[in-house]
Design a protein that fits this description.
The structure holds two protein chains of two kinds. By secondary structure, chain A is α+β, with helices and mostly antiparallel strands. Chain A has helices spanning 25-32, 87-93, 101-109, 113-116, 121-126, 135-140, 159-165, 233-242, 246-254, 270-293; strands at 18-20, 37-40, 59-62, 72-74, 78-82, 145-150, 154-158, 173-181, 186-193, 201-209, 218-223, 230-231. Chain A has a five-stranded antiparallel β-sheet with strand order 4-5-8-6-7. Chain A has a four-stranded antiparallel β-sheet with strand order 9-10-11-12. In chain A, a hairpin with a 3-residue loop joins strand 6 and strand 7 (154-158). The longest helix of chain A has 24 residues, at 270-293. The radius of gyration of chain A is 20 Å and the shape is globular. Chain B has a five-stranded mixed β-sheet, sandwiched between helices. In chain B, helix 2 packs across helix 5.
């Protein structure tokens, strides 16, 4: 499908670009080897490229025809999420009240209904310049592994390594799926946008523990505060030693915010991002305690 | 060339494949009911349904729609002067002011009611998260959608 050079009114006009529709993953990888090519998954990030002063690509490799990338497989031992599974499909397809509840909450809270029906898991993770995504911190708490395909074979690496590199492991490379090994954890995900109506979250806390009464396996990830989401090992150690005491944790966090380098964004001072973290940690801990106590949880995400 | 169903009729468009659906609707197909406001997926004024799923048409490249079924606000009225149940309910509630956000809201609400019978106020509000209305304050919109679909406690 080739393009004609017509000028549109759209601010991020890609009139001269070509869209390719591969019928296999290997064909998609081969097409991504062309100069000026990018993978097109949901499109919700790429289609706003001109707002980031990015030049449009010459070639867009559309992934929506690849059935293998659309699969969401959940069983007792493992979850495999195909790269083009949408946020909405992920939220609907994961069981609640389990180790996957944090991921389900993250997927179901992102953006808005219409955007969630388009935005994909692979596109979210591959958008390295998008620091406010809900999904990465929730997946970090589950030690997710990112799988991909190159021209010479398959790759896999921990999500944390993938995010820290801020780019694909090689070129050409296609993210094919994310894999999570199931574990005996209770998870939650809390976020705070500027307003209620579909804003990017200012700060995100994802938290998972094995036993809310006596946690020994503790995972805490902070998102949207810095350029890259990460686990907070010092807080994890504190919870292991002192348990899930929401108020105490909040106070400790308030005294340890210097460990973060909050990012700047138009209209939002960095200090505000870190200022929200203590209350979000308290809310996350409260949610997990509520599960323990089998009481209705409070509002767990904005 | 991309061919898809638009409100039940087959149409073919020649716009380049990375052209957004909202641009194609408005400038090639002259279906201007769908609005192009923020052009970055935040305001909801461009929401249409693709294969009965609400999507923001400003971020949807037309090249992905080959063989799909697209529904826009123009297709929601059963006749030239009739209104859909959602549209009628919004009119009856006097919920519409400037009208800029309403095509997207009608499509979103219609999609919600096709998936959920008798949505709660909370479910309606959740569905409207991606829609910005500068005129109304949303209360009458939520009430009208609830009335349109029946209502249950929640």
């Amino acid at each position: 499908m080739t393009a004609t050079s017509t000028k549109g009114f759209h601010p991020h006009d890609c009139a001269d670009a070509t869209m390719h529709r591969p019928t296999s993953i290997d064909e998609a990888v081969s097409l991504l080897g062309m100069t000026g090519s990018v993978a097109l998954s949901g499109g919700t990030w790429l289609m706003r490229g001109s707002l980031r002063n990015e030049e449009p690509a010459e070639h867009y490799v559309a992934l929506d025809g690849l059935a293998e990338l659309q699969a969401l497989k959940v069983d007792g031992g493992r979850v495999q999420v195909g790269a083009t599974v949408t946020m909405a499909e992920l939220a609907r397809g994961l069981p609640s009240d389990s180790d996957l509840s944090g991921v389900a909450l993250a997927a179901g809270a992102a953006a808005s209904v219409a955007v969630r029906e388009m935005a994909t898991v692979g596109g979210t993770l591959a958008a390295m310049d998008f620091p406010a995504a809900d999904l990465p911190p929730a997946l970090l708490c589950l030690d997710a592994v990112v799988h991909g395909r190159t021209a010479t074979g398959d790759t896999s690496e921990p999500l944390a390594d993938f995010l820290n590199r801020r780019g694909p492991p090689s070129r050409p490379w296609l993210l094919t799926r994310v894999v999570v090994d199931r574990c005996r954890l209770t998870a939650t995900h809390v976020r705070q946008p500027l307003r209620k109506a579909g804003d990017y979250p200012v700060a995100i806390v994802s938290m998972a523990v094995d036993d809310p009464s006596q946690p020994s396996d503790v995972r805490v990830a902070i998102g949207s505060v810095e350029a890259t989401p990460r686990r907070w090992s010092e807080l994890e150690a504190l919870i292991r030693s002192q348990g899930l005491q929401p108020h105490d944790l909040s106070e400790w966090v308030a005294g340890h915010l210097k460990s973060f380098t909050p990012r700047r964004a138009p209209g939002l001072d960095p200090w505000y991002r870190t200022a929200l973290v203590p209350s979000l940690v308290r809310r996350a801990a409260t949610n997990l305690v509520a599960v323990r106590d089998r009481q209705p949880a409070g509002d767990d995400h904005g | 060339m991309v061919e898809f169903q638009l409100n039940g009729a087959t149409c073919s468009v020649t716009s380049p494949p990375m052209t957004s659906l909202v641009e194609v609707l408005r400038t090639e197909l002259f279906q201007t009911g769908t609005k192009a406001a923020c052009m970055e997926g935040f305001c909801g004024s461009c929401v249409v349904m693709v294969d009965d799923t609400p999507m923001v048409s400003c971020l949807l490249p037309i090249g992905r729609l080959d063989g799909c079924s697209v529904r826009t606000i123009e297709g929601e009225s059963p006749g030239a002067t009739e209104l859909s149940p959602v549209q009628r309910s919004l009119v009856d509630a006097d919920a519409v002011q400037c009208g800029m956000c309403f095509p997207g809201i009608v499509m979103e609400a219609t999609a919600l009611l096709e998936r959920t019978t008798q949505p709660t106020d909370q479910e309606i509000q959740a569905a409207l998260v991606g829609h910005i209305c500068r005129c109304t304050g949303y209360e009458a919109i939520v009430q009208a959608i609830a009335a349109s679909g029946g209502c249950r406690q929640g």
